[in-house]
Write a structure and sequence with these properties.
Elements: H1 3-6, E1 9-14, H2 20-33, E2 40-42, E3 50-58, H3 65-69, E4 73-81, E5 84-85, E6 94-95, H4 105-113, E7 117-121, E8 130-131, E9 134-135, H5 136-141, E10 152-165, E11 168-175, H6 181-191, E12 196-206, E13 209-210, H7 217-232
Parallel strand pairs: 3-12
Antiparallel strand pairs: 1-3, 2-3, 4-11, 4-12, 5-6, 7-10, 8-9, 10-11, 12-13
Helix pairs in contact: 2-7
Length: 233
């Protein structure tokens, strides 16, 4: 059976400021331009301000999305301490600046170690989680705060602090499905008593799939066009 009928698993390095749906739409449109209408879905959302591994499935391979979504994920990123944002990342402006001169590396590493294990986590207001038929970010944009956001159980397998140059703290995190890394950044800042937010984030792996094997959006599009033209020809 031709490759285009079976579909494919696509590993993409998502660009900054693109939504996961932006990538899906771009790839779906590429198939359409090639004369091949095909379902396309993604396996694990990345926020617009995050980059890194995004897995897409097309055609019959979309049946594997539920199995891919439950896989653990590994991220690297940077937390800025001594200041906060409403979105817990760079999407909104800073507020609540305070001194961090008293913090030591040992305190930061020790605080990060307390996150290891099973924990309950509320989705942030600036997220795509649903509440009463609307995305939470839709409520947030109206200035509404939904306090009764349903917390979900996550697992933090590893939280390594890789470099500290205050106010910046670099880290690597291995977490279960559904973990919001910007919530962990916010919680770490609060635990240290100075506030903090996620300055940058990059997803390195999803299960056995790694960023090293991913292509850019442009490279992926070129590959699809080449493959479909060859198959059709």
């Amino acid at each position: 059976m031709p490759i285009q009928d079976e579909g494919a698993i696509l590993l993409i390095d998502k660009p900054l400021d693109w939504t996961s749906f932006d990538v899906v739409a771009k790839i779906r449109n590429t198939y359409n331009r090639s004369g091949l209408k095909r379902k396309v879905g993604h396996c694990g959302t990345l926020d617009p301000k995050a980059t890194g591994l995004l897995i897409l499935a097309s055609g019959r391979k979309t049946r594997s999305i539920p199995d891919l979504e439950i896989l653990d994920k590994v991220y690297e990123g940077t937390i800025k301490l001594g200041v906060m944002t409403e979105s817990h990342d760079t999407e909104t402006g800073e507020y609540g600046h305070c001194s961090i001169e008293h913090l030591t590396e040992d305190q930061i590493i020790s605080a990060a170690s307390t996150f290891i294990g099973v924990r309950l986590q509320q989705p942030p207001m600036h997220s795509a989680a649903w509440h009463n038929g609307k995305r939470l970010y839709e409520h947030a944009r109206k200035g509404e705060v939904i306090k009764e956001r349903k917390a979900k159980q996550i697992v933090v397998h590893r939280f390594d602090i890789t470099r500290i140059e205050l106010p910046l703290v670099n880290f690597e995190l291995h977490v279960s499905k559904g973990a919001y890394i910007r919530v962990i950044a916010d919680e770490l800042g609060r635990l240290l008593g100075v506030g903090g937010y996620l300055l940058s984030l990059r997803r390195l792996s999803i299960g056995q799939y790694t960023l090293h094997s991913a292509r850019s959006v442009t490279e992926t599009i070129d590959g699809i066009l080449c493959q479909t033209s060859t198959s059709i020809g």
